[in-house]
Each structure stands twice: as C-alpha cells, then as structure tokens.
Specification:
By secondary structure, the protein is an alpha+beta fold. It has one domain: Nuclear Transport Factor 2, Chain: A (Roll), CATH 3.10.450.50. It contains 4 helices and 6 strands, in the order H-H-E-E-H-E-E-E-E-H. A 6-stranded mixed sheet has the order 2-1-6-5-4-3.
C-alpha cells in the first residue's frame, strides 16, 4: 500500500510541476503581449522593444491601414528598434494613450505560442474636433521562447470598430513631425 501511495504521490507531484510550468509559460506569454501596450502608454521604449524577438517581428496593421504594397504575407520583418521608431512617429503625438487588453486566449506548442486578445485602445489629443479616438478590436500574436523569455515574432491588429475622431492618428503624426510633443516621449531610455 505504501508503494502505491508513494507512486501516486510522485505522479501527482510531477503532474503539478508540469501544470505549473505550463501556467508559468502562459503567464510569461501574457506578460509579453500586455507589456507592449503598457510600456507604449508609458513611452518606455526600451521596455517596448524588449518584448519583441531580437531577430525581428512582423507587424500587421493591414486591417485598417495601408502599410504595405502587397498582402499581409508580404510585410517586412522589423527589428525591435525599427518597431519602436515607427511607433515614435505617432504615439508621442497623443496627449495620452491607454491600451486595455483582455479576454486573452493562449495556445502553447513547445517553444512557440499564439494568442488572441481583445483590445480597447483609447487615444486622446486635444484639438479643434473631438479629442478621443478609440480602436476596438483584437490583437493576434505569435511568440517564440528564448533564453530571455517569450518574445513576439508577429503582431496583427484587427480593427472591429472605431469610436470618436478617426482623424486623430493623422493629427498625432503631424504633431510629432512638427516637434509638438514632449521630447522625452521619443528618446529611448
């Protein structure tokens, strides 16, 4: 009887360790995808870059922006620094942004993971028109497990609806181009 209990206990402990490791991986994946929006909202560009795979990632905004001459399969792989540089052409132009993600789904297969997460991204910029633009949709991510943790290799934004001033992204971009933003918002830390 004692051997049966010991064997059963070892099995339960091994199963618990595997489940905990999977949960830990899932939590790390969720941290990586949530950290992108959180640190972008803080304009902490080094931490934004740290969420992406060092060999580069594909960003796909084709659901709402003309970002490539071809389809979403033709999008280039960008280095983390190039991703940050692209976002610095618009995000610092807003007075405030707030990316809220939830209802996340994570699938882990060995050293790769895929996610889908609903997003409600609020962008605020005082101007002559309405001050707010809200992106409602979802993000799909692909990640790879590295020695430095889970890193994003692909990020697709799927626009489902917009609220407010749909011209705000263009206004924010012009504001950055004209140098009308807090200079610290663009500098890497």
């Amino acid at each position: 009887m004692k051997n049966t209990v010991t064997t059963w206990g070892a099995f339960v402990l091994a199963f618990a360790n595997v489940a905990q490791a999977e949960l830990s991986d899932e939590r790390q994946v969720l941290n990586a995808i949530n950290n992108v929006g959180y640190f972008a909202d803080q304009r902490d560009w080094d931490h934004v870059a740290a969420q992406f795979y060092s060999d580069g990632a594909v960003l796909d905004y084709s659901s709402f922006a003309e970002v490539s001459a071809g389809g979403s399969g033709d999008l280039p792989r960008l280095s983390p620094a190039e991703i940050v540089a692209a976002w610095q052409t618009v995000l610092p132009g807003y007075d405030r942004t707030h990316h809220l993600m939830g209802t996340e789904s994570v699938t882990i297969d060995g050293n790769t993971a895929t996610t889908t997460a609903n997003v409600y991204a609020t962008h605020i910029l005082k101007n002559a028109g309405e001050d707010t633009w809200v992106f409602i949709g979802d993000y799909q991510h692909e990640l790879v497990k590295t020695d430095d943790g889970w890193k994003i290799t692909r990020m697709r934004a799927n626009l489902r609806a917009q609220l407010g001033n749909e011209n705000l992204p263009a206004l924010a971009t012009r504001r950055v181009a004209a140098g009308l933003y807090q200079k610290g918002d663009v500098q890497a830390r």
